[in-house]
Amino acid sequence: MNLLDLKVGESATIKKIHASPDLKRRLISFGIIKGAAIELLATAPAKSTVEVRVGKMTIALRKAEAATIEVAR
Fold it and tell me: What is the CATH number of the domain that holds 59?
């Protein structure tokens, strides 16, 4: 399952990032790494963007970026 499968308020653990090397580096710089806890805080209409919390950081991701993050509950 990927990050977009979560409902608002749900948390999960990051299992893998299926992204290009450049995007992967960007996500890692935000603390989005394997084993980290991630919580879905809000979504825009049609989930065009999502707001997530990783640690104490709140991040907005585009739909395509969020789809590359594999998670498990």
Answer: 2.30.30.90
